[in-house]
Amino acid sequence: MARRIRLEDRECPLSTTVRHVGEWWTLLILHDAFDGYTRFDQFQQSLNISTSMLTARLKSLVTEGLLERRPYQANPVRHEYVLTERGRSLRPVVVALAAWGNRHLPSDRRTMILVDAKSGEEVEPVLVDARTGRNLDDSEAFVFTAGPAAGDGMRARYAELDRRRDARADTVRD
Q: Going by fewer Cβ within 10 Å, which terminus of the chain is more open, N or C?
């Protein structure tokens, strides 16, 4: 029988990211946090989420270091959930996911758009290489490869993919 692979056993930054934020409520909570929500009742009202699910998701986000739980009231004790630097660093990811979704909807079906805060003009987010400014949408120009901490399996995977790309390139040149 095939061994079931757990996410935490995967040697891949995508697996690590999914483990931290892959549950859909988590992304929605983060989105609300980017919009300035900090209190349990704000999240619950905005998302219409059960208290048990919201409690579990907030606890997970605090454990993962994406939110910080701080008291804002002493009697009775009440807490707010504030984005950490690590949590704020996920904003471009959430923006990119929303932009991808909007690109696949007719404009009259989009319920949320990203705009320039000063001009109100709609913007179209793209991912670019910070060093060169080149758009990363070109799947032929930018590819993944094994990083310095890659194990043997990851190195073998990308060595094989490199061989396939080289073979395709040779075929195109002939």
A: N
pLDDT at 99 over 60: yes
Give the span between the Cα atoms of 21 and 28, in whole angstroms.
Answer: 10
Residue 121: both structure tokens together? 């003009």
Query: CA 75 to CA 42: how far, in whole Å?
Result: 19
Number of Cβ within a 10 Å radius of residue 30? 22
User: Smallest Cα–Cα separation from 101: which of 115, 119, 114, 87?
Assistant: 114
DSSP, collapsed to helix, strand or coil, labels residue 25 as helix
**Does the CA dihedral 62-12-89-52 come out positive or negative?**
negative
What percent helix, strand, coil does the chain show, rounded to 5?
Answer: 50, 10, 40
CA-nearest of 60, 40, 62 to 51 is: 40
Q: Tell me the per-residue pLDDT of 30-42, one tens digit each, with 9 for 90 and over.
A: 999 999 999 999 9
- Given a contact cutoff of 8 angstroms between Cβ atoms, the answer to whether 81 and 64 are in contact is no
67-73 and 78-83 as β-strands: parallel, antiparallel, unpaired?
A: antiparallel
Please tell me the distance from the alpha carbon of residue 89 to that of residue 21, in angstroms, as a whole number: 12
